[in-house]
Amino acid sequence: MRKNSIKNTRINGEVLKELSSIIRNEVKDPRIAPMTSVVSVEVAPDLKTCKAYISVLGDEKEARDTLAGLQSAEGYIRRQLAAGVNLRNTPEIKFILDQSIAYGVSMTKLIDDVMRDMNREGKELDDESAD
Questions:
Q1: How far apart are CA 125 and CA 56, in angstroms?
Q2: Both 17 and 31 in a single domain?
């Protein structure tokens, strides 16, 4: 199976959906932040490994704790994944912290700050020209 085949894309989607459900509803580790989401999943074509990109809404400590909690519960999550998704092999899951959502939020804030400064400067110029 090729990496970008339709079958691989479909498997990625199913694993993503099931993994999100397992983390949200079944894992009871207190280290895992309540605002944890699975951003994307890449299952290898041989179905042996899986990279799960996790996003945590919170500070850096919450993100590290969540990653540690998920890594310690990897065996349980893998067992639940095997029960929920019918695959020949249940992939070994590697959790990777994804900072793209936090990066997007910070960039939006920076853009908003620049636009606010530009509007303020434009109003000051209008006030000066009116005098």
A1: 43
A2: yes
Give the pLDDT confidence of 85-131 residue by residue, as tens digits.
988 889 999 999 988 777 888 899 999 999 998 888 777 766 666 65
The total of other beta-carbon atoms located within 10 Å of residue 36's CB is 21
What average pLDDT does range 11-16 have in this prediction?
A: 94
Contacting residues for 91 by C-beta, under 8 A, at least 6 apart: 15, 43, 44, 47, 48, 49, 50, 78, 81
Assess if residue 1 is contained within a domain: no
Euclidean distance between CA atoms 95 and 81, whole angstroms: 14
Domain of 112, in residue numbers: 100-131
